[in-house]
Design goal:
286 residues; alpha+beta; 2 domains; 10 strands; sequence-specific DNA binding; HTH_AraC; Helix-turn-helix domain-containing protein; transcription
Length: 286
């Protein structure tokens, strides 16, 4: 696994996590299995062999070279062979700004972006990033140009989204009432903004954020026990295990026993370049 994380330029950093170029290097005909963790909305472009995404209901999505996903709250399994790819991660403000549907309509969904009516505005970008002959630097410059000049935007940015996002990053996760007060909005407005830009209710977002802090700590140092990685805001270990079932579909022990040939390397590289191992821990202010 090779991954390079390009930080968006200053005028775009409030909208995106990273622009990531990567390559999966395995022998021809060989595939590896891994999983995506809960994350913000993302566009992924595979110039060679695309992955096969496996859903909880037993169905799958394959042969989609442009994968578009909304914010997720569940683990998503996939298999993949040798390929090059680009990943563009939206922060909640970016999702709300770049002509996307309300986030809750795409929550926990991943679709073929080449055929999705919600992602037609990204087809010019797809034609650039799916070109197997183009160089990484050339494609990076095209990404920046596209989001600087070519992609439709909402009429105005909502500064409340960044305030809500920053509140979610507080280690001592607030309850919903405190969060609304900190962000200067009513409870009803907080609920609406969270669903529109973040994809989920404030209560679930707080819960997901707490769990992702624990999961990221463990993934970066799997020699640690789960008990040492558990976030301090959990009441006890059983509380954490319930969240593990909710977000991963299994116990922490079962998850620790799985091999993560792509994700582990991805997270180690990401924390060196971006400062955080996963999207959900990225700051809204760059």
């Amino acid at each position: 696994m090779e991954a390079r994380f390009h930080k968006p330029p200053k005028h775009l950093e409030r909208f995106f996590t990273t622009f990531c170029f990567g390559a999966v290097k395995v022998p021809d005909g060989v595939t590896v299995r891994d999983a995506m963790q809960p994350e913000w909305g993302t566009l992924r472009f595979f110039s060679d062999t695309p992955p096969t995404i496996e859903f909880d209901d037993g169905t799958s999505l394959s042969d989609a070279r442009f994968l578009a996903s909304g914010p997720t709250s569940r683990k998503l399994d996939y298999t993949i062979g040798a390929t090059r790819f680009w990943g563009i991660g939206f922060l909640p403000l970016g999702w709300a700004t770049f002509a996307m549907p309300p986030a809750h309509l795409m929550a926990d969904q991943i679709v073929d972006g080449l055929t999705s009516p919600h992602h037609s505005q990204f087809l010019p970008l797809a034609s650039i990033l799916l070109n197997t002959q183009a160089a990484e630097q050339e494609q990076l410059e095209q990404i920046i140009q596209f989001f600087s000049e070519g992609c439709p935007r909402a009429k105005r940015e909502d500064p409340r989204i960044a305030r809500i996002h920053q509140s979610l990053l507080t280690v001592d996760s607030p309850n919903v009432a405190v969060m609304a007060e900190e962000c200067g909005v009513s409870g009803r407005t907080l609920e609406r903004l969270c669903r529109q830009a973040f994809g989920f209710s404030p209560k679930l977002l707080i819960r997901r954020q707490r769990f992702m802090r624990s999961l990221a700590d463990f993934m970066l140092d799997p020699e640690r026990s789960w008990s040492n990685a558990i976030d301090s805001s959990y009441y006890d270990q059983s509380h954490f295990v319930r969240d593990s079932h909710r977000f991963l579909g299994m116990t922490p022990r079962e998850y620790a026993a799985l091999d993560h040939p792509i994700l582990s390397e991805f997270m180690r590289n990401r924390v060196k370049r971006r400062g955080s191992p996963v999207q959900t821990l990225d700051s809204p202010v760059g």
